[in-house]
Structure formats: structure tokens, C-alpha cells
Amino acid sequence: MAGTLTVRIRRSDGSGAAATPPGPPRFDTFRVEPEPKMNVLDVVAKIQATQDPSLAFRYSCRAGMCGTCSMRVNGKNRWTCRTQVEKLGTDLLVIEPLPHYPVIRDLAVDMAPFVESMRLVIPQFVPAEPGKATFAKIGSGSRERREIDPHIECITCGNCYGECSLVETNKAYLGPAALNRAFTLIADSRDGAARARLELVNGHDGVWGCHTQFNCTEVCPLGISPTRAIQKLKRKELLHALTPHLR
Amino acid sequence: MDNYEVCEHDVIVIGAGGAGLRAAIEASKEGVSVGLVCKSLLGKAHTVMAEGGVAAALAYADDRDNWQIHFRDTMRGGKMLNNWRMAQLHAQEAPDRVKELEEWGALFDRLPDGRISQRNFGGHRYPRLAHVGDRTGLEMIRTLQNHGIHQGIQVYMECTIVELLKEGDRIAGAIGYWRETGVFVVFRAKAVVLCTGGIGKAFRVTSNSWEYTGDGQALAYRAGADLIDMEFVQFHPTGMIWPPSVQGILVTEGVRGDGGILQNSKGERFMFNYIPEMFAAETADTEEEAARWLKGDKHARRPPDLLTRDVVARAIRSEVRAGRGSPHGGAFLNVYSQLPAEVIRKRLPSMYHQFKKLGDVDITSQPMEVGPTAHYVMGGIRVNPDTQESTVQGLFAAGEAAAGLHGANRLGGNSLSDLLVFGKRAGEYAAKYAKDRSSGPRIDEGQVREAQQTALAPFEGNGTENPYTLLRDLQTVMEEGAGIVRNKADLEQGLENLKKLVARHRDVKVEGSRHFNPGWHYAVDLRNLMTVSQAVALCALNREESRGGHTREDHPDSVTKWEQVNSVVRLRNGEMQLEHARRPDMPDELKALLTLPEGA
After folding, report:
1. What superfamily would CATH give domain B5-234+375-435?
2. Nearest-CA distance A245 → chain B (Å)
3. Second label for B237, Cα 20 to 30 Å away, from A172, B185, B516, B522?
4. What predicted TM-score, i.e. pTM, was given to this entire model?
5. Which stretches within chain A are classed as H helix?
């Protein structure tokens, strides 16, 4: 096993999301003895429990199902509960909050911009046939489900939003996760709000804002490709725009 | 007095897991104003971790299934201690609650004919669990959350409730603080629904996330409500045991439902040696019969690997004690020899990735190492089975925070259906209750001030106790005193140690400001965790028998007279009181269902 870990953690004073301090960031350095197959979440939890009880970060499930423990570790956004220290190949860890979010304190960020982006795309299912007594009979191997399924597993951890360089330059851009969600509903034949959604995600704050840089696809811990969903949406947008002229 | 904000609603729901979301949706549908308060971010509640599925007698995967058999399975799994009325309502209403989720956009896995697929699970006579791979909870939470927000429910995230407020005997609301700023907030409400989940954090090895600190049970208890059956804690037989950092994380029962088998270090399928009398008639007694069952032979009986969780957890513990454990002190769970690799990856994707990422184990070619982990508390807030109202007027509870449905042991899959069935009922009746009250309740400033002082105490004084150390010590006390197997001496010692911990908690000291201060959050949560831990140990000491999730090595058998008795705990004159109350009698037509002949 590797020797003692050096852990540099970016701190902020805790004066609130509205007051992310300007100027150069402050980093505190901690030393942690590694344990077998230790993950990065264990490292920050150990620091909190034994060295600095005020160190602020979120986590919840520890099992890669909630995404709340996301942080930027050695330059990449990650679920810290699923990031084994050994596999980083270094005993220097540099831990920062997810970028593109206001910092509440230390490693805890304000998720509000992300939550708002999700809300804007009509994230709820709108039944095409409301009040229909029976549920849809859908074959598990149907073409439609094969198209949707690779995109449905998103747990809204927000790592992609923090990695997307378009979000960085345009705060109004809906971002990868929200557009991915829109795609799963627009492609679902049971849903009745596809047209409304297509109009909402049209334009430069929507699908056309994506420059296909694949940052979101590379960072997604679940291997989802929002880029792919967005390209499919672009095609649907074109068809939607052309349909009246094709009649 | 510290400043506080005020939010007003007819109904506030505390906790935004499956039960809380479902309650909020139903209350909102009744036309009242609803606030939903949660301790973590919305969508991250424990329900999201539910893997295997939701139990409902839809009878799609096997047309012999019906609510009567689901009722029977639930009662037998609960070792007859269940509230029969809740078990009946649950079995009858679960299918409609599942279908309703699909109307709201969920999509469960399908049978080849396009209907909802159902998987086998421990203690369920027929394949009964509707599921989405092994990520059923995610689909449920997403569906409920999006549907609920669309209905206009007001959500308050990252808010810790520290006390319920009362006006006379009735509920008047609750006081909490924003975790981000530390500023207090009073929710004035005619009715409160507690959907705060369980108490898993009382144990070191647990499948539960940090939120599970018994908040709802402790809040209700301090408000004067009854808790029942707190001695019944479910240790799930299959948690990860290696590496140390992931110890306790759940391995879904779906692994065994889909054919996975348990083996000891000698490669023996030891569960054949642990079949209880009660289940002998419906459990396969040879590997050959178990193999036929897996292939879909309807005449073959279920393999013993799928016995109820209490039975399997004790069996693994016995094997380890007899020196036949796996290298890290558990059992081997083997699915690779039972199913092709691509089927494992399709049906158990989360498990595949979990073991690959966290343990460097490929479950399509290697066995998993598993052992018992604290998973669920069957006990909780005593509720009216139809309305979910607690013994305090205007205070309702649903989901894991409430008690009754599961008796002494919960069947896998019955939790997600519990959330839906009783979340809906709690929301409906809380809204009706609120509508019957014309004027809003009055907030008592004295209660607000007292709650604030208690919550802020860790910042005051010269205490020296660190909240993280206290939490670790509490977990050790509970594992040693009131863990998977208990006895009188250990429980008495445990109760003594808990008293000392409560005293130490008065000296807890938190540094820094109130602004997103995790040490303070822990200190506040610990108060609740200590209360529920005392309730568990007290009830466990006084139930002198073994039943379901409560195992006493000094009283190893189930005793008929205890079958009639619920343990009731309440706060009176500043003391925790225990009473043994007679269980409600079951009507004859339900009794008859319990003795249905095999295959009926």
C-alpha cells in the first residue's frame, strides 16, 4: 500500500452561497493514513471525524445511488464514494467543490441552478391519454425502450453540469442533465407533452447551445451520454420544425 | 430568543422519501396547502437506494397469486405480530398503487407479453415484486417527485426539524433550522405527517445512509405519542463485508430471488440445514428441487436461500461461529454459477457495478462475500391502521417511521408497497383532519424558545465531547448490547451504557458557526438516535422470547403468549415507560387465510 496521503482541500469561510469569497482560493493540507481500498469519501470523512469537525461536505448513501458526495478530485468531478484512492495512482489528493455552482461552504455547493434547470424542461411525465385505466403494454426489448433506456438511469448528481464548459460561459444554458431528462420524455410515446418540451429546449439556451465537446459524457459516473441525447433532440427539433412544411 | 422565519401550511410532511412524497401528493390532491420538509436534498432519501422491487399481488408473473396470499405471507413473515388490519389493507391496495405509478410515468420491467414483470423474493409465495432492474427505488422517487412538484407542493430542502409544536393535546406544527444557514424556521400547520424513515445509524454496520437517525420516532415520542415494537430491528442477511469502507452496504435480495445461492467456506449450501418448521412444507429440501424451481417448475418448492431475512441472517451468523465463514467473516453468495453473465448484468446492474467498483469483484465469475447488516426497524410510531394517525391528535406517520404492518420481521419488497399504500392514506387523512379545523393553531413561544435552546446547547458551555466520537461509541454500545443476537446481561449493560452516553451528550461541544456546520448537525441528530436506541434496548430486554428480528439467546424459542403482545413505549413524567399491550384480535375470515392449504 502507498504511504501517507497528502490531502489538499479547498476551503471557504461559510459566509453563504451569495457571498462566495473573491480572490485566490484557500487550501488546507491534511495527512491521512490510507486503509485498504479506501475511497475518497472515507478520506474526507476521516479528516472531519478526527482532524477538523467543521469540514463541510455532503454525502448520503455511500453506495453510488444518490450522488450527493460529488466533488472535484484531482481535476475531475467524481462520486467520492466510488473513487478508490489506490486507483488515482498518486498519494496527493486535491479536493475541490464541484465547479459552476455557488459554494455554500468548503465542499458543499448550492445545487439550486441545477435543480432549476431540471424544473424548466417539464421533468414530469404528462400522460398522453389521461385517466386511461390500463397501463401501457410495452415489450422490454422494444425499439423505443432501447432508445430511451441508456439515458434513464440518471440520478441527478450534477457532475455533468459542473463539467460542461457551455454552462460555464452561459448560465442560462439548460445543461446536459436537464436536456437528457427532456429526451427521455420526448422519446416516450406514452407522454403527451413532447411538443411543448421541444419548444422549450429549442434555441441557444437549449439543445443548440451544445457544442458536442462530450465533457458530460466523459464525466458521467453512470456512463450516460447526454451528448448523444442532445444530438437526438436536435434531430427531433429539425423534424418538428419541418413537419408543417412536409404536409 | 433567536429569530425565526415562519411558514404556514394546512399539512406539513416531514421526510421526502417514498412515503413522504406519496403523502404530500395525496394531501395536495385533497385541496389543502402542503409543505414537504426534508433533511437532505430532494430525491436523495433512502427510498432511492431500494433495489429489489415493490411487492404487489398483481398476479401477472403467476396467476395463482392474490391479496389473500400476500396477506398470509406478510403475517407469517412477521411471525404473526403484525397489525392484521394494516397487513390486509396493504395486500389489497398495493396493486392499485403500483399501477398508479405507471400512470405517473414510471416504467417497470416487462414480461414478454408487455405486462409488468415480477421477481421472486424471500418469504413471498409467488413472484410478486415489480421492479426496474435493481434500481426500483430510483424510478419510484423520480416519478413521485416530478409528479408531486407538478402538483404545486412546496418543498423545503436541507431543513432539520428539531421539535414538534403542540397547542394543548393537538399538534400545532414543528420547528427546525436550515442546514445551510443555521437560521430557525417554524412551520405552523394543522396536521403533521412524519415520514422520516428508520434508525439504522444506531449500528456501526448498516445499509442505511446518514439520515437514518430515528428523527420521526424521537420527535413523536417527545410529543407524547406511543412507539410500538421497537425491539424488532431487521438485520438484512446480505450486506457487503469487504473492503472495510463499504461494510454494511446492501446486496439486494434480488440476487437470491433470481437464483443466487449461499455457500460456506466448504462450498456447502448450508441453508438446507436451517429450514424452520413453519416453512418446511413450502421449502425445497434438495438442491435438485431448488434447481427445478429456478427453471420455473411450478411444482417445485422454493429454495431455502429465500427464507425470511431473520432466518437467513441468523444462519450466516451460525456458520461463521462454527468456523465455516468466508475469509472476511461472512458467507459466499454465488450467482455466477447459476446464471449467464449477460443475464446477471441485465437483471442486477447495480450489484455488478457496486462489486466491480468497490470491491474489485466480478460477480459474473466470482462469489460475493456477504454478512448481516442493520437494515430496517419494524417498530416505530403507533398508528391507527386506517388513517395512520398517531396517538397524538393531528400527528400522522407512514413508512418506516410508523409501525404495525411488518410485525416482528419485514418481507423484502413490502417496504416500497408500504410507502405507497400508507403514504397515500396518511396524506388523505391528514388533509381531511386539517379541513375539519377551521382556524390555524396557535404557536407557543415558550415551546419555540425551549427547542431553540436545546438545539443551540452544543455551541454553549465548556463541554468536551466530540459528536463523531459519541456517534461511534453509541454504535458500539448498540452492536454489543442490542445487536443481532441479544441476552439479558448484555441488554442491561447496554441500557446502563446508553444512560452514560446520554449524560455525555449533554457535554457535546461544537466549534465554529451555525453555517452548514456538520458537527452541529450530528450533535442534533444524536439526541434522537439515543432516544430510539434506549427504546430498542428497553423493549428487547423485556420481551423474553425470540421472534423475527428479535433474537434472545437466553430465550431462544417463540412463546405463544408473547404472540399476543405489542411492546409500547411512551414518555410520561420525564421517563421512558414500557407497557405490554394486547394485540388487536383478528376476524375469523382473516384467520382462515393463514391456514390456507398449500397451493390454494
Report:
1. FAD/NAD(P)-binding domain (3.50.50.60)
2. 32
3. B522
4. 0.95
5. 40-50, 85-88, 112-119, 143-152, 159-163, 165-169, 176-186, 194-200, 215-219, 226-246
